[in-house]
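Protocol step 4 of 5: obtain the predicted structure for the target chain.
Materials: sequence only (see below). No template structures provided, no constraints applied. The aim of this step is simply to have a reference model before the mutagenesis design in step 5. Sequence pasted as it appears in the construct record:
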Amino acid sequence: MLELFFLAPFLGAQVADQPDLLDRLAHGDATALSDAYNSYGVLVYRVILRMVSDPGVAEELTQDTFLRLWNRAGLLLPGSSLGPWIVTIARNRAIDYLRSTGGRIASHQSQLETLEHGHLFAGGRDTSIDSSQKREIKQAIEKLSRHQREAIDLAYYEGLSHTEIAQRMNQPLGTVKSWIRAALRTLRAELEETKEV
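Step 4 output (structure tokens):
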């Protein structure tokens, strides 16, 4: 469910020299965009496909995500982590698309697992999640309460605002914000711990 989004910080480790890549992006080096695409293209496509459940739309939004990255690369600060930043752009593009078309977020039984159009990313680095990473992420997610998991899911995969989540869950806004903050803190700590091991 939340696996792809929270794996993004760890995919940065696959980029041989991420500080150099960030610097090249910020300075308009076109090869840096290609390197970013090779490192994160599959992940971005999968995040978007999970949300829109339409391979053609996911392909277009993936291209748009990298265009936005290129156009906003000057905003990257030295020491930034590209994975979470680009996944956030992808998620926001999918939400914008769904809101503009009146579409609904795809069900959790989406086409993510089959990735029919994987050939489009044949030149990209394989960013699939291996079984040990899946296990670590699943264990981290299982440490969240049911309410925290639901709130995070509504925020990241349905694109709901905190106010909308509070209404959907029939809970006070402050409670929902606390659940989300605590969940993100827990996930970050758990995944950082497994990264150091």
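Step 4 remarks: The chain has nine helices and no strands. Confidence is low (pLDDT under 50) at residues 9-13, 106-128.
Proceed to step 5.
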